[in-house]
C-alpha cells in the first residue's frame, strides 16, 4: 500500500487598484463561489486613454511566513515584446498562462479596448499549480504592477491557499 495525497488551490482574496482614475478604472474585480465545486475570479479594466503601445508588468509571488515574503518569482517584462514571442520568457509564459485562456489579452500591442479576465475557474488554477508546476503547501500572494508609458497605472493582487489533504491508502 502507498499513500496518495490530493492538493487543492483556493483563491482567498483579490484586490485591484487603479493608480490614476483618468487613465483606467476597474469596472469589477471579484471572486465568486457559485457552488462547492464551481468558483471563479473575474476582472474588467476600463481603459480611458487609448491606444496603449507600451506596457510593462512586474509579477511577484510571495508566500506567507510571518507576513508575505518573496517566493520563487519576481519578474518584470515588456508585455508588448513578450506577446510577440511568448517563448522568450518561460517564467512569464507560465504566469501569463494562469489567466490567458480566460482573457482578451491574447494579441499584440497596441491595446485599444478594455481588458477582461473572465471567470477563471479555481479548478484551472489548481491544475496549473499542482500538476504543471507543483508548489509547496501554504498561503500565497501573487502581486502584479502594470505600467503604461513608463507610469505605474494599476495593481492586481491575488491571494490564495494551497493545501494537501484527502490522503488515502491505495492498495498496490
From TrEMBL:
UniProt-listed PANTHER family: DAEDALUS ON 3-RELATED, DAEDALUS ON 3-RELATED-RELATED
One Pfam family here: DUF1091
This protein's name: Uncharacterized protein
Domain of life: Eukaryota
Amino acid at each position: 500500500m502507498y499513500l496518495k495525497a490530493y492538493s487543492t488551490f483556493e483563491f482567498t482574496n483579490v484586490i485591484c487598484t487603479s493608480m490614476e482614475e483618468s487613465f483606467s478604472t476597474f469596472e469589477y474585480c471579484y471572486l465568486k463561489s457559485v457552488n462547492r465545486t464551481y468558483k471563479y475570479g473575474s476582472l474588467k479594466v476600463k481603459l480611458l486613454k487609448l491606444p496603449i503601445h507600451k506596457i510593462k508588468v512586474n509579477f511577484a509571488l510571495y508566500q506567507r511566513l510571518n507576513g508575505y515574503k518573496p517566493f520563487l518569482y519576481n519578474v518584470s517584462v515588456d508585455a508588448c515584446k513578450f506577446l510577440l514571442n511568448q517563448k522568450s520568457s518561460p517564467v512569464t509564459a507560465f504566469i501569463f498562462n494562469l489567466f490567458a485562456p480566460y482573457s482578451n489579452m491574447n494579441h499584440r500591442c497596441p491595446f485599444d479596448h478594455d481588458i477582461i479576465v473572465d471567470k477563471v475557474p479555481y479548478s484551472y488554477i489548481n491544475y496549473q499549480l499542482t500538476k504543471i508546476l507543483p508548489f509547496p503547501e501554504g498561503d500565497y500572494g501573487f502581486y502584479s504592477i502594470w505600467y503604461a508609458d513608463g507610469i505605474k497605472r494599476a495593481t492586481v493582487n491575488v491571494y490564495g491557499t494551497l493545501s494537501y489533504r484527502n490522503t488515502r491508502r491505495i492498495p498496490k
